[in-house]
Amino acid sequence: MFSSPEELGEKLKRTGYVADAELLPAIFLAMKLSRPVLIEGPPGSGKTELACAVARAAGTAMERLQCYVGIDEERAIGKFDPSLQRLFLETQRGAPLNSWEILRVGLHTLEFFLAGPLLRSVLYESKPCVLLIDEIDKVDSGFEALLLEILSEWQISIPKLGTVKAKSIPFVVITSNEERAIGFPLRRRSLYVRFEHPTVSREQEILSLRTTATKEVHGQIAGLAHALRGWSLEKPPSISEILDVVRAMELLGIDEIRPEHRDVLLPLLIKTESDRQRILLRDGFAALLADSANYSGEAGVVRS
């Protein structure tokens, strides 16, 4: 997909994604070695967005397997379509009785299979896709084991259908919010990357690429995000939520957050009642703004 880590970084930046310099060689090598990347870190730190940005930068499709408690093989790989099989049999009513074995085999082919994201990801012919396996920590070790064949051999074994070998090898990004420890078999097959929320200066850079607000607004919001994440909130703001704050300010014509803007911006910044009550305490929001000014100063933004 890319000829060097530098090209990867440049093309990611054009999509609005700012990657740390240490991350680029890991992503580049994972592509060249046909290995998945396992990214662990807090929610909202840019793990999922990396997969989306790589797909945009490479000009290719993305298949997403969203993990959740109770997900099964059918959801991930797919299943035969019984209605389509019945329709096919209706068209074969006049076939000789001795042709049943041929019909039975014909019914269990890819033409009658509803492919899930895992299977679709290995069927791309002209260009490899990006496969995002999101929030792997929400499933159990049994489901993890289901992934090992595709991530090792780049093939999928399906009952009645047989083994489907990859037509192209996708670039795989596996994300985890660390709700559960991921097993070593999956870790052995992956390149490991750790994500944290961005520094104030890095978040400013992200905001400047993705929004048209002034440098002063970017500095204040990046400082506010850093302050909020340091308050041990139940739900710290993600990068995407901070981008929404900047866009909201642009829509409302706000060029500097002041204490009187608390109630307007609170629904964008705070997403649980316990966090909301904390910010609503006397001087809570004003204290946050004071902290954000200090962090903005550390990042080189001088406020008037």
List the helices and strands and how they pair.
Layout (H helix, E strand, L loop, with lengths): L4 H10 L8 H11 L3 E4 L6 H12 L3 E5 L6 H4 L1 E3 L1 H10 L8 H8 L5 E3 L1 H5 L8 E5 L6 H13 L1 E4 L3 E4 L5 E6 L7 H5 L2 E4 L5 H11 L4 H15 L9 H14 L9 H8 L3 H8 L3 H15 L6
Parallel strand pairs: 1-8, 1-9, 2-5, 5-8
Antiparallel strand pairs: 3-4, 6-7
Helix pairs in contact: 1-2, 1-3, 10-11, 11-12, 11-15
Model description:
With 304 residues, this protein is an alpha/beta fold. The protein folds into two domains: 5-77 and 116-194, Rossmann fold; 200-297, no CATH class. Helices cover 49% and strands 12% of the residues. It is built from 15 helices and nine strands. The strands form three sheets. The protein has a five-stranded parallel sheet with strand order 2-5-8-1-9. The chain has a two-stranded antiparallel ribbon with strand order 3-4. Strands 6-7 form a two-stranded antiparallel ribbon. A hairpin with a 3-residue loop joins strand 6 (155-158) and strand 7 (162-165). The model has no long low-confidence stretch (mean pLDDT 91).
Q: Termini distance?
A: 46 Å
Could you give the count of β-strands? 9
Let me know the average pLDDT.
91
CATH superfamily of the largest domain: P-loop containing nucleotide triphosphate hydrolases
The succession of helices and strands, N to C, reads HHEHEHEHHEHEHEEEHEHHHHHH
Provide a compact summary of the structure.
The protein is α/β, with parallel strands linked by helices and 304 residues long.
